[in-house]
Amino acid sequence: MPLPPAHQRLHAALERLRQFIQQQPDGACRQPRFDTQLFRCKGTRLADYLREVEQNVAQLTAGDGDNTRQQWLAGKVVDQIAALQRECQSQQLRVARERPRHQPNQQKREEYQGYETRLVAMLQQREHALARAETLSVQQQLIREVEQLQARLARCRAALYKLDLLPPAP
After folding, report:
1. Average pLDDT rounded to a whole number, residues 38-62
2. Rounded to an integer, what distance in angstroms lies between the CA atom of residue 17 and that of residue 19?
3. Is there a contact between 39 and 78 (Cβ–Cβ < 8 Å)?
4. Is the pLDDT of residue 169 over 70?
C-alpha cells in the first residue's frame, strides 16, 4: 500500500538525516545533547536520537491512537528532525573550532605565568627598597628577601621551562 504524500516526505527527510548522521564523526558527548522534553533518549550520540525519531515515525505511520495523539506525535517528530538537522550542521562547526576542553598544561602555564609576574614585581619592589634602605639591619633583611624571591623565581621559570613555554636559560 503506497504511503500518503506527507508520510513519503517524512520518510524521505528521515532517510536524508540518517545518511547525514552516518557521514559524520559521531563522538560521544559528556552529557545528553537535547532537552528531555524533546527526546526521552539520554544517549550521547546522534545515532541514539535518530533511533528514537525512527520509533516515533513508525508509531506515527502505524496510525495507532486517537487523532489528537497522532497530531501531537507528528509535531514532536517534526521538532525532533529539525533539532537533529541543526545539531548535524553545527557538528561540523564544532569540530573545526573546538579545542580539547581539558588542557592541564595550558592551565599550569597560565598559573605559573601569573606567579612569575607577581614574583618579578615583588623582586623589583624589594630591590628598589634595598637601594633606598638606610640602616644595615633593613638592608640585610631586604637582601635575604631578594635572594628568596630570586630562588622562587628561578623555580617558577624552571617549571615553565619544563612545560616548554620558555627557552632554556643561558
Report:
1. 83
2. 5
3. no
4. no
